[in-house]
Task: structure prediction
Amino acid sequence: MQLTVSGLRKSFSGQPALDDVSLTVASGELVALLGPSGSGKTTLLRTIAGLEQPDAGVVLFGDRDAATYRIQERGVGFVFQHYALFRHMRVEDNIAFGLRAQKSRRLPAHLIARRVGELLELVQLSGLEKRFPAQLSGGQRQRVALARALAIEPRVLLLDEPFGALDARVRKDLRRWLRDIHDRTGHTTVFVTHDQEEALELADRVVVMNGGRIEQAAGPDAIYDEPASPFVFSFIGDSSRLPVRIAQGRALFEGDDLDLDAGAMSEGEGHLFLRPEDMDMAQASGPGFPGRIVSMRRIGGMRRITLACGEAGHPVVFDVPAHRAFSLSQDLRLRICGGRMYLPSGGSFVAHRLKAHEVQDDRPPERSGNDA
Ligand SMILES: Nc1ncnc2c1ncn2[C@@H]1O[C@H](COP(=O)(O)OP(=O)(O)O)[C@@H](O)[C@H]1O
Ligand SMILES: [Mg+2]
Result:
């Protein structure tokens, strides 16, 4: 079932938690809502579920206004961060709870039992149906919570940081497992997380929220490679930024030409955002600018160096092979090979990917030896 939210607004004591949020989730799509704490993710999820009334805007399930369903009939499966299982109920009764609560179209007991059995198999907990929640691990409890949410065959499945309270290893396993279940059951799913790695790995599409607004909704690659705003750039992945002026097709940092191709950009002052892979050590004679090493740390096979650059000591982060020897306070020259330039424009930003100039090669093409 397609899910649409349109023009949603919600304030708490005059403070906007949702500020004109519009989003369409295609039938069967798995969308991750990603954003810092307080950005409105839970409020959006609760509004979709009907647990919160919006001040303005609508939620549609397919073509129908979700508010016209009675709350029990909305058909929303909800999984919270903190396993909200009934502690006094066995696993099987937790899972069956929603099915037994359906008044109008309650299944007979033997069909409920069959459905619980299928769900236990789906979430790989067969054999544990007689246990109480206290006799399960955190990961197992979240799997029961998911089975309970799926039991009612929801129109949409909403998960609010379902793995947030679990340790990193279990999280990673459950993430793959959830993707697998989603692919098998095909529910329209909205998944909240503040963990970018989780969002990028799990979701068909990532929706980045900030301050009650959607900053960008796009596939994982586009979110990483073409962030729509400086916020998205710095929220996803490692980043550095330098104040840069575009003038006459050149990108200038504190007056130094960065030797990037900025011919397509309009003139102005903005910020150049950089990933660690956008930088390299400069050749002594080539383009570059100086910086001083202020910190180093080991990341896998690489060493991540932070340089303080320019008069203001802007921190710039990049990677070098771990075997190369560097020391704190050492002076280096850095070369920028690319980056994403954001120029402010009417309350928003114009973004351009900048590349290093092509190296000029005036030699004639080599001839192959065959026709000699
Ligand atoms: N029931 C509530 N009463 C008052 N303020 C709330 C309530 N729910 C959320 N807020 C506020 O709305 C904003 C968004 O919160 P929330 O949706 O929980 O963000 P997130 O889930 O992204 O951390 C926050 O500033 C939060 O304090
Ligand atoms: Mg939340």
Observations:
- The helical segments are 41-49, 91-101, 109-122, 138-151, 168-185, 196-202, 220-225, 230-235.
- The pocket of magnesium ion (ligand 2) is lined by residues 41-42, 160 (CB under 6 Å).
- Residues 168-185 form the longest helix (18 residues).
